Amino acid sequence: MPYRAEYIWIDGTEPTAQMRSKTKILAVGESPGIWGFDGSSTNQAPGSNSDCVLNPVFQCPDPIRGGDDILVLCEVLLPGTLEPHVTNHRAACVAAAETYADQEPLFGLEQEYTFFKHGRPLGWPDSGVYYPAPQGPYYCGIGATEISGRDIVEAHTTACMQAGLGISGTNAEVMLGQWEFQVGPLGTVEVADHLWTARYLLYRIAEDHGVDASISAKPIKGDWNGAGCHTNFSTNKMRENYDAIIAACEALGGEGVPERHLEGYGHGYEERLTGLHETAHFSEYRYGVSDRGASVRIPWQVAQEQKGYIEDRRPNANIDPYVVTRLITETCCAAMA
Questions:
Q1: 229/215 Cα distance (integer angstroms)
Q2: How far apart are CA 312 and CA 296, in angstroms?
Q3: Which of 219, 231, 265 is closest to 110 using CA atoms?
Q4: Residue 166: which residues within 8 A CB-CB, separation 6 or more?
Q5: pTM of the full predicted structure?
Q6: What is the pLDDT of residues 214-238, one digit of tens each?
Q7: Is there a contact between 56 and 32 (Cβ–Cβ < 8 Å)?
Q8: What is the CATH number of domain 3-88?
Q9: Which residues partner with 274 through β-bridges?
Q10: Residue-range domain boundaries for the chain
């Protein structure tokens, strides 16, 4: 019997790329190959020269459709030359991973997101003049007044596990209607492949519930937490000694490095990195042990054991993970080469 392959890719929408997908029916024994799409409808080509190419780079079982159906994550290439499209950030990520493969970089990504329904976060009062109680009881909360959307979260977690993705945890976040899932530890490219695929599943499952899952960095203005994608990182040297931990932290604060990284850490970082709500101000760079107000946190057990990993708390929820893992790999690994 034929089976379905859901081709998934990242478009050229600015300032934050969106996910697109379409279905291809394949015969028994047929493998997914390159496919085309209309780039003029995805902000990736002009109408006069609109063809773009989808090149499969990662696939897994489709837990939504089941059976033999699969999800196929693709990179976008130019027709004819098959060179990476300008919106294809995976190619540069692959190059960085290959350059520093001997250092065995590993990442864990903490994807925060916010559920919305009818233009308001899920669980918030319907009227625009009413707001939920202030932040406090919602983080890792339990109960109908503290939590909203758990049924979607459970369905998403199950789907990721069935797809074989490297999901490693979930929790309710600081604002009502806000959640997080974690992916990793995985390599520089693999963790980004898995995060994009997990995002696809989140959007699709939320869609079935009539809910939108937003990765906006500041989904609600005012005294409410933004949404980040805290990025945990280590190399083989960092997993062996503390000097390498400090070297990585120092490298991330080198001359011109914070500014360059922030440009790749997602749209709207100025609204989120205000120095409030467990963030350092975007204009400063500092690191510290167990400090969630620092740019980079060294977990307390890492300082105690004198080895482990660091957490860059600056990346936004709406990052392109290929960009962030490449930047951190290049900066930290070059300093330890």
A1: 9
A2: 4
A3: 231
A4: 183, 184, 185, 186, 190, 191, 194
A5: 0.95
A6: 999 999 988 888 999 999 999 999 9
A7: yes
A8: 3.10.20.70
A9: 281
A10: 3-88, 96-336
